[in-house]
Amino acid sequence: MGGSADSKVSGVENVESSSSDSSDPLAHMLAVTACLFDNSGSAVSLFDDDDRLLYGNAQYYDLICHAPGTHPLWPDIVRDNYANSQGLIIEADDIELWIQTALSKRRKQTYRQFEIDACDGRWLLMTETLISGVGLLGIGVDITQSKNVTTALKQEYQNALVKAETDLLTDMGNRRALERLRNILLSKGIHFQVAALMIDIDHFKSYNDTLGHPQGDLCLQQVARIIRSSLRVSEAYPIRLGGDEFLVLMMGAPLTLAHQIAQRIRDGVRHSAIQHPAKDSGLVTLSMGLACHEIIDSKSLSSLLKDADDALYQAKRSGRDRISAPLTVSDCV
């Protein structure tokens, strides 16, 4: 566009002031267009080749927190908004560097679309159209509601994922969570040590048969709370495999530490003195199997879980209410 910025601005003002002349078709069209812009609900702007604001409707001036009828340069709008924490949100440590980066993107494409957020909580979808001989036309459409809906949907999706991998009765992970852990372990690509603790509630079927399933659920919840509170290590993951079967995976834990945790769980259940009318002792007890392996691939992880399960059944065959672990543990102590 030719001419100085002042002449361009005054030219726009002259067009606006003459828009009441209904005998001028162009003036009438501009008046109608301005009326449409003002009532569109969108923030509309037009910048000249020097990036000075030639035209802005009421919504645009409100967005940038500048007085209607003023014609600031676009970089000055950004500086003012940044300095006063108003209008458009600009997150930057170095505002001048941010402006230079933003300027490198303006006017490089005939059409550009992006999202911005404002200090008043609104989100706008901005489109910039470079019109030869006219300037840079910007239109901002309020997408706050759809943005909030999208955010809510994403949160609901994440919540659904968590619920899908959480056992609702015990608030532990379920088999889906175990599969995710398996994938994470195998994706690390390094050799590392994992201890596995398999846990069963002794004679739980007779507990349910005697007291009923609602009471059985309460027992499972009590045992689960004791297991979770006994871990006290950041890289330990409790899983309910189903029924009264539990698994705890402990990353990087030597067998000696894993055995201490197993003993802590066993003692916690004993001290809770959960009544079991179908047992001679009258109390709920646990059988546990412990194993420790260096995980290098899927086969070694499967071997770890099998060894822990075999150790659990050894504990049951030996009389229950005990912890069974491999005799040879030199690679895990």
Biggest pleated sheet: 5 strands, antiparallel
Low-confidence stretches: 1-21, 328-333
- Residue-averaged pLDDT, rounded? 85
Strand content: 15-25%
**Which H/E pattern describes the elements?**
HHEEHHHEEEHHEHHEEHEHE
What's this entry about, in short?
The chain has 333 residues and is α+β, with helices and mostly antiparallel strands.
Protein architecture, described:
- The protein is an alpha+beta fold and about 325 residues long.
- About 45% of the residues lie in helices and about 20% in strands.
- The chain has helices spanning about 5-15, 25-40, 60-65, 75-85, 95-105, 145-165, 175-185, 205-210, 215-230, 255-270, 300-315, and strands at about 45, 55, 110-115, 125-130, 135-140, 190-200, 235-240, 245-250, 285-295, 325.
- A hairpin with a 2-residue loop joins strand 7 (about 235-240) and strand 8 (about 245-250).
- The N and C termini lie far apart (about 80 Å).
Task: List the defining traits of the structure above.
alpha+beta; 10 strands; disordered N terminus; 333 residues; disordered C terminus; 21% strand; 5-stranded antiparallel β-sheet; elongated
Helix-strand layout with pairing:
Blueprint: H1 5-17, H2 25-38, E1 43-47, E2 53-56, H3 58-64, H4 74-84, H5 95-103, E3 111-117, E4 123-131, E5 135-142, H6 144-164, H7 175-187, E6 192-201, H8 204-211, H9 213-231, E7 236-242, E8 245-251, H10 255-272, E9 286-295, H11 298-317, E10 323-324
Parallel strand pairs: 9-10
Antiparallel strand pairs: 1-2, 1-5, 3-4, 4-5, 6-8, 6-9, 7-8
